[in-house]
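Encode chain A's predicted structure.
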Amino acid sequence: MCDTVARMATIGVIGAGSWGTALAKMLAESGHDVTLWAHRVEVARDIAAHGENASYLPGFALPVTLRATADLAEGVSGKEVLLSVSPSHVVRDVMTEAMRHVTGRPYVVTASKGIEETSLLTMAGVLEEIVGTLLAGGVCALSGPSFAREVAAHMPTAVTVGARDHAVSTVVQRIFTTNYFRVYSSDDLIGVEIGGAVKNVIAIAAGVSDGLGFGSNTRAALITRGIAETARLGAAMGANPTTLSGLAGLGDLVLTCTGELSRNRTVGVRLGRGEALESILGSMKMVAEGVRNTRSVRALAAKVGVEMPITEQMYAMLYENKSPRDVVTELMARGLKPEFNRAG
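Encoded structure for chain A:
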């Protein structure tokens, strides 16, 4: 890990989906030396030839200084910062290969959100395993309410970067901050990541509610009880409760449960209207992380002994063919209890 990084850094963005492209665009526009790695050769060629990622972020011109490549070695070698933005289920494979070409001691930032199914680690946890002890201290997570298209359009956005060492998060904070993209720093890495993983599951539930024709009352209840589930899991994992009331927790949850650009909410809306999950996923170009993460979040909750009823019902709907209306009915019919446990 670099002891210091100049304000203008050499950055490798690993993953050319909508979010990776939007972040690469923002960083290159800020004057950083940015290389964007795409898994698909045709995506890299399209960006190089036309200055636009027509597959994943159409309608936005990319800076001429932004280099696109399908060569992973070119994407990561000699970089001071590596930004991992692959879908959560391929992060381990992609970054394991990437580390074979890493030189120096870069900061390693994850902007992917989720829990790995096999290990039940967060994305930063996966990266810490991959990069080894020499670089693990430079691993951090960028998360918060941030749709890719709105960032690409320079709409004011605020997010959080978390690291185990606050000095690391402040370095990355300075690199990523622009006049429309405000970054807050945190030393609560696990809290930042738990908020980002669970919100995708709750967003599916919010979409189901909307698809069934329920109103604002139901959506507000799901968001509020969703943050309660997130907070319980976060507490069991050692997170600071304040983190989950902030941008990486409540902020991201509200965005994903209400925003028209939310892929996870869209999946839920279509399920609520009676479409089959296989058909929905087959029609989507980009990944809705909440579908996979419902399994992994549920498994993590069971491992640490945390009750997460919304997550349980989403699992039953997605993987046990329970009907959306029965899911809502069962949530409402749960045994009565206080909203908050009494202290002592």
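The beta strands are 10-14, 33-37, 67-69, 81-84, 107-110, 139-143, 157-163, 181-186.
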